[in-house]
């Protein structure tokens, strides 16, 4: 088992009818009364979540900032940073899915930062966020696990870039998870959420066998559970049992548990982020596009684990690595997700070359669990995914 540090300070409040506990949780982290409420396109005002949260926070001064995009934009988030500073807010509450929560992690960090925040996202040497306003979340879309981790992905469309950030300061103080919100989600978001949770798990599992048997079994449990409940959630999002399991799977897939003591990959995400930046393809769908072909290109690296995955998760026999890849792609397609770039855009001819050049420019000469996936291989994977 690899050495590891494990830290997760986020408190989870799980279940329906829990929003009345919000004041108690907030009071544990600030004595102030000015709260910045962040959210996305306004769906929370249609599904009842907004009213429920506002009712619970009657004793607070609420400053609202809506309009955070599905891929949170740097310029939009900087408007929220200025608002937080002007209003001298004491606490920030993110009400939404992963994009709202990711954006809020940037807002609370940049609000305390005196330099140019993009320098941190651009990973310039010596630039980092170290402080943040305290914040919590009310999750409305199970997918990214951002409600119980410290990471975030921020977009800058004018540069066609997506960059990651994180740090101990960006763990939510608490997160409220109410599975009843799943009933209000459209099929596209449900499919994306299931795929996102599945791929977060695979990125930390489909590497090579380790002697951390517990982590591998936990990962296999999440994958098997998602396969079992996916058709039920897609057919009846109001199925509370299925929705509860989806929400908890998505949280567990990326709260730090699976990565403890094992190798992890994330190269599918690194390539997928470029597809979103260049073509606006939904994040989860970029993962479904890239993963099967990445596994084919790095087949020898992942063969042993692919066999284990096929046998334990899909119930296959023998040397089933290639069939495991096919089953993965078929699972995504069963959710209604297309798995080729051409299904989303007609203008991607230069995309493989652009991604290779970007990886080269950033010095990403070898990524993945073995540090050996090259920019040229990334180009090949994208070409296979066209």
Chart the SSEs and their pairings.
Elements: E1 11-14, H1 22-27, E2 34-38, H2 49-56, E3 61-65, H3 74-87, E4 91-96, H4 98-110, H5 117-121, E5 135-139, E6 152-156, E7 161-165, E8 174-177, H6 187-203, H7 213-235, H8 240-253, H9 267-279, H10 283-297, H11 299-313, H12 321-334, H13 351-361, H14 375-384
Parallel strand pairs: 1-8, 2-3, 2-4, 4-5, 5-8
Antiparallel strand pairs: 6-7
Helix pairs in contact: 3-4, 6-7, 6-8, 6-10, 7-8, 9-10, 10-12, 10-14, 11-12, 13-14
What can you tell me about this protein's structure?
The structure is a single chain. Helices cover 46% and strands 10% of the residues. The chain is α/β, with parallel strands linked by helices. The chain has two domains: 11-180, 3-Layer(aba) Sandwich (Rossmann fold); 187-384, Dehydroquinate synthase-like - alpha domain (Dehydroquinate synthase-like, alpha domain, Up-down Bundle), CATH 1.20.1090. Strand 6 and strand 7 (161-165) form a beta hairpin. Helix 6 packs parallel to helix 10.
Q: How many domains in all? A: 2
Instruction: Using the 3D structure, state the CATH architecture of the largest domain.
Output: Up-down Bundle
How many helical elements? 14
Number of E strands: 8
Order of helices and strands: EHEHEHEHHEEEEHHHHHHHHH
Mean pLDDT across every amino acid position: 96
Profile the largest sheet.
6 strands, parallel
According to CATH, the homologous superfamily of the largest domain is Dehydroquinate synthase-like - alpha domain
Unreliable runs = none
CATH topology of the largest domain: Dehydroquinate synthase-like, alpha domain
**Helix fraction bin:** 40-55%
**Quaternary state, please?**
single chain
CATH top-level class of the largest domain: Mainly Alpha
Q: What does the overall shape look like?
A: globular
Strand content: 5-15%
Structural class comes to alpha/beta
Strand order of the biggest β-sheet: 1-8-5-4-2-3
Using only CA atoms, what is the Rg? 20 Å
N- to C-terminal separation?
38 Å
